TrEMBL record:
The chain crosses the membrane at residues 67-86, 92-125, 137-160, 172-190. This is Urease accessory protein. Keywords: Membrane, Signal, Transmembrane, Transmembrane helix. Coiled coil: none annotated. It comes from the Bacteria. Residues 1-21 form the signal peptide. It comes from Thauera humireducens. Pfam families: HupE_UreJ (PF04955).
Amino acid sequence: MKTRSALAAVALATASGAAFAHPGHESASFFTGFTHPLGGLDHLLAMLAVGLYAAHQPGTTRWMLPAGFVLAMLAGAGLGALGVALPAVEAGIAASVLVLGLLIALAARLPLAASLPLVAAFALFHGHAHHAEMGGASLVTYAAGFALATALLHGAGYAIARWMPQTRVGNAIRRVAGLVVAGVGGAMLGA
């Protein structure tokens, strides 16, 4: 009986799109939100870098940094929706690329009490920028889209870092990748 109830709930949820006055806008909002982090080099590098950096951190820090980033990013979008302005949003995003790249290049292991607020502060800027690009999309579906894309980018960065061998060559490649990311961030700050 529980299986039938679950199947009925799924069927009703799937069919509920027909109840909207203008069907299709919610999926467009989700897709627009999902593609936003993928379309800009600044967002793409920062979000991959969070995963790369988190992969070489101890214990719970490995998942707390990406999760904290996504939550703070949603908070940044919420601030934007409330009309709260953040100063120097683009510079904050560029700084995130620079600093995260340097953390990877230096193989830094900051304590969670330092790394989580740092990552969360950067995420506020990313979320605020995502909201600014939202246009007429639905905030909930748009935010769900960019949150999922961000989590997937974090996961991709994490998987790449864990896939690379823990050898001198693998560590050198990671450090060079961090320097490249930092260099792009530095160029963005200088532009």
